[in-house]
Design goal:
The strands form four sheets. Strands 10-13-14-9-8-15-16 form a seven-stranded mixed sheet, sandwiched between helices. The chain has a six-stranded mixed sheet with strand order 5-4-3-6-7-17, with helices on both faces. Helix content is 44%, strand content 17%. The protein is globular. The chain has 19 helices and 18 strands. Bound molecules: nicotinamide-adenine-dinucleotide. It catalyses: an aldehyde + NAD(+) + H2O = a carboxylate + NADH + 2 H(+).
Length: 488
């Protein structure tokens, strides 16, 4: 079955159909129609898989995708067009251009936490760039996976785009095939498996991984600034798939003297946003499954970690719900501070000085996203230049995900490669260098037999424009000192 599907895709690609602008446009329009027509079904599937609120579903998945599709449709002609490249003046009567070309048949493996967004966002790039594609959604969000397999496919050309469902086993079977690109979103553990499989055919890969994303909170003096900071932190932790997001705030770094004020406000705003009984409000997603529920429960099992819980901590296993939870200064060697949390537990780590956060961040794997709440320009500059992360956002969180103009991707342990907007198109394209040379001009000193004079002329031509070269050749200008003289 898989063989036949893959043959279909390769045939489609080789027929040249997927390269046509009209095919790309019709598939992008199909994707947009699916999102518009099936909005309710998508929301329902996200509710079923993750208890995700409709507004979150629109904000983080449906809405961002429609926005990306509108941009891709508007920009497709421009993205596809070749771009003139400047050449050195010496290349007389030569022109050059950069021609974007599709890579071929590509594989997209996605994750369960934004099961529609993380599947379709890369697919938009793959299709816009003219590739044939297989999408393998996560088995851990089965309602969304099944919706993509059964409904999305009715909007698309199934000879050029296929959705193949399944878990680790099916994913590995897919990885055994030859691909022209593998785009993977998920854990570093599986990322390693993907990379090893890609080695066989030297397939290029993009790895969108996770890790611990810190939020540094400087002591802010205006009460408005503090309240806005707290609201943004709460939404970036508990209000984004209950913290099950690669760019959710994992933990907060704050000066000791400022911690209690921050905690007091976070508690207040949790209550304002989610009410006395957050579970009842149905605005917080639930944990994806029992396995992840137990994993999160175990993060709190350590005695010292338990003692650090100063708010929340209640868990309803039957309904896979975990209350927004705050921990202050859990041991740094505990799993809650060494592993990605991916859930609604928020450790707050206190420091003597806010500048110490730079060292704290640099001692750990490079984060996918770094958030810094500060008005201090020096601290902002230092954060940009002295730390390494996929992105850094000042005074907000998550926002960078929705920006089509910014590359989204990690560095170091948080992955490599980037996408969103035009970056998605580039990720799935090869940028071919095309040079067109005329026969009309030719320089004798390019060819052997080699003489010192030819070396000097070559050096002159690398260092001067036409006029300079002409003047040197006519003996009206002396070559500069760095041109070698002597014997050969
Ligand atoms: P995962 O690595 O377990 O699964 C991701 C995909 O890989 C799924 O489609 C799954 O079916 C497949 N898979 C699982 N085991 C496999 C195996 N042995 N061989 C081949 N394929 C296999 O990750 P997850 O639990 O879906 O996601 C959680 C992780 O993903 C977190 O670390 C999170 O930070 C990261 N993530 C990153 C981004 C990003 O954009 N950078 C987005 C979402 C999640």
């Amino acid at each position: 079955m898989m063989e036949r599907d893959l043959n279909d895709l390769r045939e489609s690609y080789e027929s040249g159909k997927t390269k046509e602008a009209s095919w790309r446009e019709s598939q992008l329009k199909g994707l947009r129609r699916f999102l518009m027509d099936k909005q309710q079904d998508i929301m329902q599937a996200l509710m079923q898989d993750l208890g995700k609120h409709q507004i979150e579903a629109f904000r983080d998945e449906i809405g961002t995708l429609i926005k990306t599709l509108n941009l891709a449709l508007k920009s497709l002609k421009d993205w596809m067009s070749s771009k003139k490249a400047a050449l050195p003046q010496l290349a007389l009567l030569t022109s050059a251009e950069i021609v974007p070309q599709p890579l071929g048949v590509v594989l997209i493996i996605s994750s369960w936490n934004f099961p529609i967004g993380l599947s379709l966002e890369p697919l938009i790039g793959a299709v816009a760039a003219g590739n044939a594609a297989v999408l393998k959604p996560s088995e851990l969000s089965p309602a969304c996976s099944s919706l993509l397999a059964s409904s999305l496919t009715t909007y698309l050309d199934n000879k050029g785009i296929k959705v193949m469902e399944g878990g680790a086993e099916e994913s590995q079977q897919l990885l055994e095939q030859r691909w022209d690109k593998i785009f993977f979103t998920g854990s570093a553990r599986v990322g390693r498996i993907v990379m090893s499989a890609a080695v066989k055919h030297l397939t290029p890969v993009t790895l969108e991984l996770g890790g611990k994303c810190p939020a540094v909170v400087d002591s802010l003096s205006s009460s408005w600034d503090i309240e806005v900071t707290v609201k943004r932190i709460i939404v970036a932790k508990y209000g984004t798939c209950a913290g099950q997001a690669c760019i959710a705030i994992d933990y907060v770094l704050v000066e000791k003297g400022y911690c209690s004020k921050l905690v007091q406000l976070i508690k207040l705003y949790i209550n304002k946003m989610f009410g006395d009984n957050p579970q009842k409000s149905k605005t917080i997603s639930r944990i994806v499954n029992k396995h992840h529920f137990s994993r999160l429960k175990n993060l709190l099992a350590d005695e010292k970690v338990k003692e650090s819980v100063i708010y929340g901590g209640s868990m309803d296993q039957d309904n896979l719900f975990i209350e927004p939870t705050i921990l202050v200064d859990p041991p740094l060697e505990a799993a809650v501070m060494s592993e990605e949390i991916f859930g609604p537990l928020l450790p707050i780590i206190t420091l003597e000085k806010i500048e110490d956060s730079i060292k704290f961040i640099n001692c750990r794997p490079k984060p996918l996203a770094l958030y810094v709440f500060t008005k201090n320009q020096t601290l902002q500059r230092r954060m940009i230049s002295e730390t390494s992360s996929g992105s850094v956002t000042f005074n907000d969180a998550i926002l960078q995900y929705a920006a089509d103009t910014l590359p989204f991707g990690g560095v170091g342990e948080s992955g490599f490669g980037m996408y969103h907007g035009k970056f998605s198109f580039d990720t799935f394209s090869h940028h071919k260098a095309v040079v067109r040379r005329s026969f009309l001009t030719d320089f004798w000193y390019r060819y052997p037999p080699w003489t010192l004079n030819k070396l000097q002329l070559l050096q002159v031509s690398y260092n001067y424009d036409y006029l300079g070269l002409l003047l040197v050749l006519l003996g009206l200008k002396r070559p500069s000192k760095h041109v070698i003289s002597g014997h050969m």
